[in-house]
Amino acid sequence: MLRELEPVVESNLNRHLAVAQEWFPHEYVPWSQGRDFDGILDGQAWEPEQSKLSDVARTSLIVNLLTEDNLPSYHHEIATLFSRDGAWGTWVHRWTAEEGRHGIAIRDYLLTTRAVDPVALERARMTHMSAGFANDHPGSVLHSIAYVSFQELATRVSHRNTGRISGDPICDQLLARIAQDENLHMVFYRRLLGAAFELAPNRAMRAVCDVVREFQMPGHGIENFGRKSAQIAMAGVYDPRSHHDEVLQPILKTLRVLDRTDLSGDGELARDELAAFVADLDQAATRFTERRDSIRARAAARQ
């Protein structure tokens, strides 16, 4: 499968390099707002009131940053699976280089604007990176391609919506720029997934079904991730409705996954399982949205 997909990788790598725009993280950071912290430089200690961000915006930014911080583990996983040779290897290194600047830019922004506790942030980074990241389907090229197709789009949505709720135009601009990278990465992998469907439709369908049903964000190993993700969902940054409408449906529709007629055996079974799961998720998303609206209405009435 790696060999058969390599021409597709090469052509889409060339396309990516032609459309990707060079940008510099330092240009998006308001350095003039920075000052020394306490410690060896004897600066000012961090205090919560120094942050202009809401609690949920701060939580979402920290989750997004810690997710980006685990890049060494992600690189190891895809380099081991896709190889470091030929077009695959060139893409792996290019993707890693582009992803690396996301964590640099977000951390510089957070520390310069004193948006987060720097000690707590560093401790969280150490804890999260020490656990690493492992592929749920090790050795499966198709499962990995399917996962990153959805994951890159999910990350784009999370960054973009975090910027919008931040209340800071600088933060919004930075995360919008990062989201552009994530979108290009999604397009690259989505095109590979489309090619995989043409080469092995039944196996590709099973991979997509498994990934969609088991999907977790790559940062799910972050300490207290469940509580943090619930807070993020309640704020509308990333919730079941956005996952269904803005992540699953665009890829499934673009590749006409549920409309395929070249399936047999397990491929047909996987398509039916996928269709049923997506329908159930749609209903669950509606229930979540209604419950959240009710909670918000009661809170507003008390105020």
Describe, in plain words, how this protein is organized in 3D.
With 303 residues, this protein is an all-alpha fold. Helices cover 72% and strands 0% of the residues. It has 11 helices and no strands. Helix 4 runs antiparallel to helix 7 (169-199). The chain is globular, with a radius of gyration of 20 Å. The model has no long low-confidence stretch (mean pLDDT 96).
Measured by DSSP, the beta-strand proportion falls in under 5%
Kindly report how far apart the N and C termini lie: 59 Å
> How much helix, percentage-wise, in residues?
over 70%
**What structural category characterises the helix and strand content?**
mainly alpha
Low-confidence stretches: none
Overall average residue pLDDT: 96
Biggest beta sheet attributes? none
CA-atom Rg in angstroms:
20 Å
Give the number of helices: 11
Q: How would you spell out the order of helices and strands?
A: HHHHHHHHHHH
DSSP E strands, number: 0
Give the overall silhouette: globular
Write the layout of secondary structure elements.
Blueprint: H1 2-19, H2 55-69, H3 71-82, H4 86-112, H5 118-131, H6 141-165, H7 169-199, H8 201-214, H9 225-234, H10 240-254, H11 266-302
Helix pairs in contact: 1-4, 1-7, 2-4, 2-6, 2-9, 3-4, 4-7, 6-7, 6-8, 6-10, 7-8, 8-11, 10-11
Task: For this entry, give a set of tags.
single chain; 303 residues; mainly alpha; globular
In summary, what is this structure?
By secondary structure, this protein is mainly alpha-helical.
